[in-house]
Amino acid sequence: MYNIEKTDYGYKLTFGGFIRFEEMAQWVRDLESALEGAPLKFSVFVDMRSLSPLPPDAKVEMKRGQAILKQKGLERAAYVLANTITTMQFQRIAKESGATWERHLDASTNPNWEKAALDWAKNGIDPER
């Protein structure tokens, strides 16, 4: 399951459950449509608290979607996760792609995860400091 929602700072993306390749490929297509007319610079808040780890082929599509976001003007991305394996997977993806604009927040240990994520997405206040 996924959802793409336009916000005042850019976009809120929600992912949940077990997402296979086909669904992730559809997300990329929907994302491209949603980004038509996007501002020159924007941020994303990504709620992945209920997302299961991605299979390898779906992970490739996620990376493709992330590249499209960056190409279209992404400045900052706040990823909120609650599953240790999924968190490690997305930290690895960020490291592989050199995504210094991403912050990963663990909702299972940070009671202020939503505020911290929005502070990063909207105002560039780094939750890691």
Describe the structure.
This protein has one domain (2-123): STAS domain (Transcription Regulator spoIIAA). Helix 1 (21-34) links the parallel strand 2 and strand 3. The chain is globular, with a radius of gyration of 13 Å. 43% of the residues lie in helices and 28% in strands. The model has no long low-confidence stretch (mean pLDDT 94). The protein has a five-stranded mixed β-sheet with strand order 1-2-3-4-5, with helices on both faces. The protein has 129 residues and is α/β, with parallel strands linked by helices. Helix 1 (21-34) runs parallel beside helix 2.
SSE blueprint and pairings:
Layout (H helix, E strand, L loop, with lengths): L1 E5 L3 E8 L3 H14 L7 E10 L4 H17 L1 E8 L2 H14 L4 E5 L6 H11 L6
Parallel strand pairs: 2-3, 3-4, 4-5
Antiparallel strand pairs: 1-2
